Amino acid sequence: MKVYNLENIKSATELKHRTEVISMNERSIIVLDTFTGIAQKLQAVSISLFHLDIEKVMNQLQDFENDCGNWLDNLLSSEMQKAEAAKEIKVHIDQISRLCNENPNIIDDHEIMAHGAMISSLILSHYLEECTKKNFILNSCHFMRLGLDRKPDIKYVKKNVEELMKDCPDVPILITQSRLCKNAYDEVDFFPQIGNEYYATVIGAVFHADEIITSLRSDEICFRGMEHTRTLTYGEAENFIDSGIALLHPECIPLARTAGMAIVLIKTPEDTLRISSEKTGTKVKAAVSRRGVVFVKLRSLGVLTSYLFIGKVFDVFEKYKVPVYLATSSNVSVSLAVKCSNDTLRLIYRELHKYAEIGMETEMSVVSVIGDLNWEKHTGLEARIIETLKEMPVCMISYGSSTHNLSVLVREQDREKALMTLCKAFLDIPSEKFDVIKQTQLQDSFVM
């Protein structure tokens, strides 16, 4: 079984294009996000209802009904199919209009947006029917529930999915709604805004899917060469995310690993990225850079013993919630690559200056090489990486905490040179790709 995560659909043309990849050879689940235009119009209805502007609500609903008609006109050619779809959509619009007789509250907003999710599913369902693709709509409120901690209640979800599948017709395509669910109080609710791909991963896990197919939204990724499919292991993907590249929501990877699912990210039909347990044997797969880093050097004044000194340093950084990207230490010194404001740096200096001699340098960058860097299997690889950077000053080297990542800290002015040097040495990046990367002026760059 495959799970297709369809989101950010703005037009009928885009919907047609995105559904072309759906296979009829095996059972599939489409996790559909509310169409962008539908969500925006219903959000406006919800705001007007909150302000008790009933006349405006009715006008907006009429406009919304016309907009749904435009979706049907652009997707369906059969007048009978259009009439049937319009009738089903009208039922949802009438239910929204009945809310005008009640006192508005936040639950009404969720109810309105839930109708938008169901209307989007109806439109897709009728379009697939016209394309002779048999399908069935699963209302996600019937099986998906959040616990009191606002996380999916997996035990409840699995139990309800098993019951639903017993009565579900034997059709190749199931359609369900993205993020729509019930909460612990049995009210209509939505998943927290943590990425639709995480919701799709939860769906894949409870339906025992083999593969999840979703969009790669990050503009920070530049693919190399002419290959159409690249592969990453779960561990390598986690290192990309830890390096600041927005591949997926971080919780997707451990969930997919536990369920044994592959995740396929599609940037364009020619550029795809597959994350699974499969190892390709490729040593270096990517070079990543993170900008805006601060280099902090602390050398103990001997006031505290070595273990108390290191503990004190990290306690202070934890106190001010400062993310630490790299850390190296010896018996009497600690070097850190962090990201924080100048005001926070001053507070940290005030707390630690009596224990350590402190040096700080801004405008630094972390450059990471990611792949299968296991030192036992690939002897000398880490030495080759460092040798490649011999023409520029390297402030820190971090290696050993992961077999998938070697990171160095360089000055911002050397970031681009370091990234390109590594790409030439290990990734065979053609020169025209360098021009694309330079023109984008990315905060974080990723090359694969």
UniProtKB/TrEMBL annotation:
Keywords: ATP-binding, Kinase, Nucleotide-binding, Transferase. Residues 95-266 form the Aspartate/glutamate/uridylate kinase domain. GO terms for biological process: homoserine biosynthetic process; lysine biosynthetic process via diaminopimelate. GO terms for molecular function: aspartate kinase activity; ATP binding. Pfam families: AA_kinase, ACT_9. It is an enzyme of class 2 (transferase). It catalyses: L-aspartate + ATP = 4-phospho-L-aspartate + ADP. GO terms for cellular component: cytosol. Residues 367-426 form the Aspartokinase ACT domain. InterPro entries: AceGlu_kinase-like_sf, ACT-like_dom_sf, ACT_Aspartokinase, Asp/Glu/Uridylate_kinase. Its EC number is 2.7.2.4. Belongs to the aspartokinase family. This is aspartate kinase. It comes from Phocaeicola vulgatus str. 3975 RP4.
